[in-house]
């Protein structure tokens, strides 16, 4: 068997290769490649026969050479999917890269949908107080760095005008219950508000997502024009490091435990909680500082505390009070403790002190 080690270093555990494109792919991406027979043809690198001409072709190309050609003009804001990302992001990246050739320099006009500074489209949006999804018109503008949405297609007055300053967008297909589900979050009077949307067309929803990223990137560059692109790109959109249900009690720790949906974000060091996973408005939030500032986390809960339905406790100490949470499973308990420790271990940046001060003012 021909040794492929030289060209395999760009793909983790590649079991497949496209012998038309000259690239090695993982089993997950091989499914999308099979859906593109005019562009890509897949073989197993271990089980299928490779004749000499195909071997030579793979030696000539390989992932490094292919990426140099197919990713020549990827905009810095464009999201490159990672291993744990959802299917729609991976599928559309492959299609944009190989099928539509959006990044080779041949078809730059195709990038105008998400890089022109103006995006308008119809998305299905979940109602604030119910589970029904309704069509809403969305308008994204780089001119004033806003995202607007309207209750009907012909409406002139927007239902909401959202600033790019704190806007975040992340795919949440499992939470939303749709393979193209996108969660858009922003601050409203210092409280997180969520919009849950989707589009039936996978290319359209990914274009919308990248249009949001493009506008956020432009906003960040305006705020800090001397910053390097590589420093700004990680700030465009952010994902939580842990989400899920826990039970929470009140300040005296004698109030009844209530089940809440929690989201922990390392970027802004906030633990936000909602009544359910699809709630529009945050019920409250806890700032997570460093150990040197009086923050710590441990397993279990203090003796004498009121009990809840769940058994696996997490105690979070802050300078202001002690928070007690209960998890349904021991695995969840371990994961939450690890996530809290990760945030606590990160040094605080200047903006974090402002966030902490603002959150304390809100509670007074």
Note down, in words, how this protein is organized.
The protein is α+β, with helices and mostly antiparallel strands and 364 residues long. The protein is built from eleven helices and 17 strands. The chain has helices at 5-8, 27-34, 52-60, 62-70, 87-99, 112-115, 173-176, 202-223, 229-236, 330-345, 350-363, and strands at 16-18, 23-25, 42-44, 118-126, 133-141, 146-150, 160-163, 168-171, 182-188, 191-198, 242-248, 258-265, 270-274, 284-287, 296-299, 312-317, 322-327. The strands form three sheets. Strands 7-6-5-4-10-9-8 form a seven-stranded antiparallel beta sheet. Strand 5 and strand 6 form a beta hairpin. The chain is globular, with a radius of gyration of 24 Å.
Write the layout of secondary structure elements.
Elements lengths: L4 H4 L7 E3 L4 E3 L1 H8 L7 E3 L7 H9 L1 H9 L16 H13 L12 H4 L2 E9 L6 E9 L4 E5 L9 E4 L4 E4 L1 H4 L5 E7 L2 E8 L3 H22 L5 H8 L5 E7 L9 E8 L4 E5 L9 E4 L8 E4 L12 E6 L4 E6 L2 H16 L4 H14 L1
Antiparallel strand pairs: 1-2, 1-3, 4-5, 4-10, 5-6, 6-7, 8-9, 9-10, 11-12, 11-17, 12-13, 13-14, 15-16, 16-17
Helix pairs in contact: 8-9
Summarize the structure in short.
One of its GO terms (molecular function) is zinc ion binding. The chain is α+β, with helices and mostly antiparallel strands.
Helix content: 25-40%
Number of helical segments with 4 or more residues: 11
User: Taking all residues together, what is the mean pLDDT?
Assistant: 91
H/E order of the elements?
A: HEEHEHHHHEEEEEHEEHHEEEEEEEHH
Tell me the total number of β-strands.
17
- Specify the overall morphology: globular
Major β-sheet strand ordering: 7-6-5-4-10-9-8
Structural class: alpha+beta
Radius of gyration: 24 Å
Low-confidence stretches: 1-11
Distance between the termini: 70 Å
Q: DSSP strand (E) fraction?
A: 25-35%
| Largest sheet data | 7 strands, antiparallel
């Amino acid at each position: 068997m021909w040794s492929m080690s030289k060209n395999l270093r760009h793909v983790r555990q590649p079991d497949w290769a496209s012998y038309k494109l000259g690239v090695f792919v993982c089993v997950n991406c091989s499914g999308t490649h099979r859906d593109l027979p005019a562009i890509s043809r897949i073989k197993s690198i271990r089980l299928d026969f490779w004749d000499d001409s195909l071997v030579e072709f793979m030696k000539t190309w390989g992932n490094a050479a292919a990426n140099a050609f197919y990713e020549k003009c990827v905009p810095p804001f464009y999201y490159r999917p990672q291993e744990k990302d959802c299917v729609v992001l991976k599928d559309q990246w492959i299609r944009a890269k190989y099928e539509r050739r959006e990044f080779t320099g041949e078809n730059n006009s195709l990038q105008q949908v998400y890089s022109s500074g103006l995006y308008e489209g119809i998305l299905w949006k979940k109602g604030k107080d119910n589970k029904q999804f309704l069509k809403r018109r969305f308008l994204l503008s780089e001119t004033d760095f806003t995202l607007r949405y309207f209750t009907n297609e012909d409406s002139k007055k927007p239902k909401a005008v959202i600033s790019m300053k704190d806007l975040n967008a992340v795919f949440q297909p499992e939470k939303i219950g749709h393979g193209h589900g996108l969660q858009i979050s922003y601050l409203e009077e210092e409280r997180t508000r969520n919009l849950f949307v989707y589009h039936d067309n996978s290319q359209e929803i990914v274009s919308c997502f990248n249009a949001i990223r493009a506008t956020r990137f432009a906003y960040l560059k305006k705020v800090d024009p001397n910053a390097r692109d590589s420093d700004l790109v990680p700030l465009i959109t952010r994902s939580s490091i842990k989400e899920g249900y826990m039970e929470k009690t009140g300040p005296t720790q004698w109030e009844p435990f209530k089940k809440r949906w929690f989201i922990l974000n390392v970027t802004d060091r906030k633990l936000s909680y909602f009544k359910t996973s699809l709630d529009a408005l945050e019920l409250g939030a806890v700032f997570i500082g460093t150990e040197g500032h009086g923050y710590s986390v441990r397993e279990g809960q203090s003796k004498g505390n009121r009990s809840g339905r769940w058994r696996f406790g997490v105690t979070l100490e802050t300078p202001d009070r002690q928070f007690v949470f209960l998890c349904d499973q021991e695995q969840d308990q371990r994961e939450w403790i690890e996530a809290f420790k990760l945030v606590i271990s990160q040094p605080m940046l200047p903006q974090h002190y402002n966030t902490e001060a603002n959150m304390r003012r809100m509670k007074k």
